[in-house]
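User: Predict structure, ligand pyridoxal-5'-phosphate.
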Amino acid sequence: MTRPLQAIVNLGSILSNYQQAKTLVGGSVAAVVKANGYGHGLTTVATYLAPHVDALAVATLEEAVEIRAENVSTRLLVLEGVFDAEALDTAIQLNLDLVVHSEYQVELLERYHQSAVNTALNIWLKIDTGMGRLGFHPDKAAERYKQLHSLSIVESVILTSHFACADEPEREENVFQLAAFDAAVRSVQRAHDELFESRSETTPLPQSIANSAAIIALPAAHRHWNRAGIMLYGSDPVNRAVDGSVGKQSLACSMTLQSRLIAVRSAAKGESIGYGADFRFSEDGRYGIVACGYGDGYPRHAGTGTPVMVDGVRTRLIGRVSMDMLAVDLSCVPQAVVGAEVELWGPQLSVAEVAECAGTIPYELFTGLTQRVPRVY
Ligand SMILES: *Cc1c(COP(=O)(O)O)cnc(C)c1O
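Assistant: Predicted complex:
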């Protein structure tokens, strides 16, 4: 008998969520599959999506190498870019799109250019409009653009930035960031027009700023390219519905974390359950032990009361989550016996709700799922 814990991944749901993103923006959408495909499995998700998407995006070169090793030739963007000359070599061999966010990356390209290798890179020039993480100051955008555009190895430059608060669309920071981005784009456009002495009817430069939240809730941020991550995996970061639905967009659920009861026990009034004897039954009761713990990536900070589905009935976690197990109250599930099906999150119980109970976000629960959990497609 194998351990009953599994993450059941619905690849069709991920694709249908991608198509929802496409419908919302009209333009191109890069499917973000970084961090092991948000826990769903990097190469399985990437190879499945590849024929259907405008581009894939990952955080690191290592992730891109894994995807290319599967013979995926779809356009593939590395969101952190490369950190040294060797990595740039690899990126060029693998025909990757690269973000350039720092001087040292411009210098790497300049040095490569001097070796006069025939190549045609798509560079995503990152502008820091308020996230305060990666990218050039908006005042530097035009200069960097000219520098990059003068390199024969650079085929195209896409202007890009990232929101800090898009999951709260009413925040004024979004307005400021969008204004800063548009101002930077205008300055780059002027520099571009000077370089090419173009006439009035210039086509706008390719741009990208929207993540999932902006795709869903900030239409003004929709541009040529958009980057959908968490929404592909059925989680709406804006309308964080905690009622078991996944929000207004009715995204399709992409993962069910499923297990079974491996023990059923009764407790007398006053008996404690689990580490720290944190939970005590206030009257005689019945409870079950589920094969799933923080060693699998279930959040240890999910306390007593966190919802769990047992045999189709919504009940609650009790006591502290252990490394390999957790306990659930069976007072309201009298029919549950050993082997009863348990849904930790999935279509009946949103990952957002579990995340909320653990003081975190669906991103962390998905990416935190450990290797011990078999992914079943
Ligand atoms: C991860 C990431 C995304 C995707 O963000 P979601 O909120 O998951 O849609 C988009 N852009 C950049 C730069 C990222 O790092």
